Amino acid sequence: MMNRRWWSRLQALLRREMLHLATVNRSDRRWQMPFCAALASGLPLLVGVYFDRLDYGLVSSLGGLVFLYSPNTALSHRMVALMACAFGMSACYALGVMSHFFPLLLVPVLGFIAILVSMVCRFYVVGPPGSLFFVMAASIGAYSPIDVMQVPLHVGLFTMGCLLACLIAFFYGVYILRLQAPQPAAPLPPASFDFVVFDSIVIGLAVAVSLAVAQALQLERAYWVPVSCLAVMQGASLRAVWNKQLHRIVGTAVGLLLTWALLALPLDKWSVSLLMMALTFVVETLVVRHYGLAVVFITPLTIFLAEAARLGQGAPAGMLQARLFDIVLGSVIGLLGGICLHSPRFRNALGPRIRRLFSARLLP
């Protein structure tokens, strides 16, 4: 009798989990937005291939991701918000690149960036993807194999990618506002210490811990660990964190199979660039509908974004296994951080101590 009751409870739990994982959300996103996002990140790649410098195109393409921060507001507000995000992403990338030359500072610098960016995004209510791409830019920059004299060049290339994305966003805004009315710019809600400061500190510490663990394990390119940790912790509730963790792990596993199939194709620099543009279009079409399905295509896109300049220099199987381990490790640490973040006992124990560290009032 007890075994039958236990089995029925397990079946009900599995059905609830499958329902959460299989839910597809409705979206009113028009196809023009994914198309312009693909242009913002793809045109720098095509320019880089034309001049036989795909590595330069990849840096600018990373800056083109700022297009995704374009809000659905009036054009004046849209461009101001987007240019502010472009400046922030360029600053994060610059700090990440400079920290590359001081390995002992990688963990504290990335943790500081995650804390500061999370505070700013929460205070100004920056929508998805939130602080993710800021930290991602800093992480990839920190592991870029460049010398000191190339720092201004790479920061300039990244900034040029941001500027191109802002230009595309301007023309996209002019066009799309003829088809649909802009959303009003919502007034900033009262900023609470717990939401802006406490949560950001916990998120930043979890990101720093994930990178420290990755370095302790001597992972070759550890930037996917903190990025995966942050992506999972961005869930608005513990249920959302759990769902994101499952979506990211399962979606990554399937996405690595897709990546392996794509790497088996006879790809050249032109076809890689066009493939990345197609993947960007698919990702931005799916991500608002089903995160796990989008991760299937995010996985090859991010691998190409970070590794395209080095493709063909080693066995792809080893690289794919390393990426799976990185993302699983980061997702598990992100889940643990999310449990702490949404635990009332943890907040009550640590919150007053963090408050005492801030003698001056940072928030109204």
Q: State the share of residues found in helices, binned by percent.
A: over 70%
Write the H/E string, N to C. HHHHHHHHHHHHHH
Low-confidence stretches: none
The main sheet comes to: none
Descriptive report:
The N and C termini lie far apart (58 Å). 73% of the residues lie in helices and 0% in strands. It contains 14 helices and no strands. It is mainly α and 364 residues long. The protein has helices at residues 2-22, 32-50, 54-63, 75-99, 106-123, 132-142, 151-176, 193-216, 224-233, 238-263, 269-286, 291-307, 316-341, 344-357. It has one domain (30-183, 190-354). Helix 8 (193-216) packs antiparallel against helix 13.
Give the arrangement of secondary structure elements.
Elements lengths: L1 H21 L9 H19 L3 H10 L11 H25 L6 H18 L8 H11 L8 H26 L16 H24 L7 H10 L4 H26 L5 H18 L4 H17 L8 H26 L2 H14 L7
What is the structure about, briefly put?
This protein has 364 residues and is an all-alpha fold. Helix content is 73%, strand content 0%.
List keywords for this structure.
single chain; mainly alpha; 14 helices; globular
